[in-house]
Amino acid sequence: MMHNVRIDLGSVDYSLLNADADYEALANKILPKALVQIGEAAAETALSEAQKAFGKSKAIKLNTSVSDKRKFVREGGQNYKRSVSSTDKQKIKSEIVARLKDQKSRQR
């Protein structure tokens, strides 16, 4: 799901992460921003694919202004955040926890 998406974990004091509850609490804080980042990545991919598919077509003209592209990507991120299922949220949160644990193990 988000294996190819870079999620900004922010600045983390890994010395404060000891119990699973610590990781869960931090993942809950990171989750909203992560959902937007995942949605934006999906929107960028969709826009790129649409441009490839329709770019050569004379019948369909896509708006390619930079501001419209940014708006599309931003809205895609917000829409994903609002509409993601609770099951997917839990999977993403679990992935964040795994990434935090992995990063902490690399700090040693």
H-E order: HHH
The largest sheet, given as strand count, sense and whether it forms a barrel, is:
none
Strand content: under 5%
Uncertain stretches of 5 or more adjacent residues: none
Q: What is the 3D shape?
A: elongated
- What's the mean pLDDT score? 89
Radius of gyration in whole Å, from Cα? 17 Å
How many runs of DSSP E, i.e. beta strands? 0
Structural class: mainly alpha
Distance N to C terminus: 28 Å
What's the number of structural domains? 1
Portion of residues in helices?
A: 55-70%
Q: What is the quaternary state of this protein?
A: single chain
Please describe what this structure looks like.
This protein has one domain. The longest helix is centred in the middle third of the chain and has 35 residues. Helix 1 packs across helix 2 and helix 1 packs across helix 3. The chain contains three helices and no strands. 69% of the residues lie in helices and 0% in strands. It has 108 residues and is mainly α.
Helices and strands in order, then pairings?
Elements: H1 20-54, H2 66-83, H3 86-107
Helix pairs in contact: 1-2, 1-3
Structure at a glance:
About 70% of the residues lie in helices and about 0% in strands.
What features would you highlight for this structure?
mainly alpha, 69% helix, 108 residues
